[in-house]
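Session log. Operator J.P. requested a structure for one protein chain; no other inputs attached. Running the standard single-chain path with token output.
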Amino acid sequence: MTATNPNPRRSLITKIHIARTQLGMDDESYRANLAHYGNGKTSSTDMTIPELETVLEAFKKLGFKPLKKPGKGRLSPSSKQGPQDERSAIRAIWIFMHRAGFINDGSETALNSWVQRMTAQENGGAGIAEVQWLHGEEAAKTLNSLKRWARRCLFEDLKKRGYEPHPQDSYAYLLKRWERINGAML
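Structure written below.
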């Protein structure tokens, strides 16, 4: 039997446990944070819904990024289908940025909207509506633009976590450093 109305308390507790894992908290730190934000309670199962919500919001301020369920947008085609060129790299970086929490919507529809905005100026305001329609110089420019955006996100995320990346570090270097800290996501 499936529940039509999930238990909001259970859902909050689950999110708090996911946040603990994502933030890399040991048991002592986790319990100290619960006590601090949860009115002295050191177990999430003892907390009320408002206390759980307060703890979850505090974890978000500490850097927890809840993963959002995919929207109604189209998903990217399988990498086995289609060419292995700039378009594949664009899709891979887009998906990475979504999984890393840098963008909210990792769907093909969202990517196509971004591509259309990025190519609009060079195409008389209309833009290229689909990633799959990018070719040659347009694909290369779009890929480089996305890499610059991802680089800025990686740089800021590393700084926020207390690391000191050099302003001239490349996208590839920052990505390697970020993956060492967070684990490979691709």
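Operator note: The two ends are 35 Å apart (CA to CA).
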